[in-house]
Amino acid sequence: MANSVYSINKGINRPLEFKGLKAQYIWYMAVGVFGVLILFVILYSCRINTYVCLVIGLSAGASWAMWIYKLSHKYGEYGLTKKLARRSVPKSIRAARNRDLFVGNLNGVYGKSDERNVADNGGRA
């Protein structure tokens, strides 16, 4: 019986990469290819000349691929996700004009101030 030779996977804890695209950019490319295919089908079903459909489809596909490769090389595996997350962080936190919400929470009642608690409890604090 012959000995089998197995190659060892030395890419443990490395991002998934295919032809220079890293991680989520592979999915973005797949969505783009599917979108260009749908665009071609719609144009072809509208009885537009086949060569015009091909030119539009190829140019849309090429521009999409160049844009995705540019994003992949510029931001890397998680850089685009971090950039989009950084956009959703507020620039500043503004407090409310009154402290009723916080005072009520200290007393165990949410959103009511001391005066309202006394009135609601029949004069008991």
From TrEMBL:
This is DUF4133 domain-containing protein. Keywords: Membrane, Transmembrane, Transmembrane helix. The chain crosses the membrane at residues 25-44, 51-69.
